Amino acid sequence: MTELKTFRITNQRGLEVDLLNFGARLIGLRYQGVDVVLGYDTIEQYLTDTFSVGATVGRYANRIGLGHLEIDGNTYGLNINEGLHHLHGGSAGLSHLCWTGEQLDDRTVVFSHHSPHGHMGYPGNVEIQILYRLEKEDRLLIDMRGVSDRKTILNLTHHSYFNLHGVNKAGDASAASHEQVLMINAKERLEVDADGIPTGSWVSVEKTPFDFREEKPINSAPNCDHNYCLDTQGALSFAAELSSKKSGLKMSVWTTLPGLQFYGGHYLKAPFKACSGICLEPQFFPDSPNHEAFNTPWVSPEHPYHEVIEFRFSA
How confident is the model at residue 176, as a pLDDT? Predict the structure, then answer.
């Protein structure tokens, strides 16, 4: 296995980020002296992580029903790792692999990985690059790129658990994560079945606990694990905003992606506590290859993958 390596980037304005090449992960994020993401006590614990803590998730983030993938009449069976379905790229997805990491300067780290044809059932040799860079005005840019030697799918996302109240290194929240205040720029979410697989329909969030078009405490929908259909147009656009009255910190999420998975962290277990952090994961819709109405992230030599996630912090 490639040697485990950590990296640190800082903007000298009170924003500091620690990164790990295993899973191209973010393992620490401090703003104004407050640690705002869950993390393990030791680097070795990430090797057995089952919660995707801070990881780059893929090849396909979220779920693909029954692991079924069809491309131009050819059927591919993906690794089944959640009940009857495929989740987050499989049992040995990108979050479970060592990447090559390089620190370009004190504000920039880039991770790269070659995913071979057939890995976890996916067709195509894919070259993937994840760039973390601290921009001006306390912004963390995550630039995600990929290219394949044949037609395939690629849907990457970032999977940190945020708690702007502040967390200890061991993952204990200093205040309940669901006391954070959230706003999501979406009037609809995907309808899903009991396994979290989309039915193919959009449903309005109006007059439901899942309506976050105006900011409100997360505890109104504490066990949320839904994909929101963002009111964006493909350019870098505002997706969500998270804030803490306790710390006075605020984080807005901007992205080029069409969906946002809001997961309340209710499945977290030791060494963490349930709901001690939440995930805001920009991505293409889950199970999109099996729904004609969904925008599917097809990738080929002629059509490389390039998407952006940006977290903007303020106090």
Answer: 67
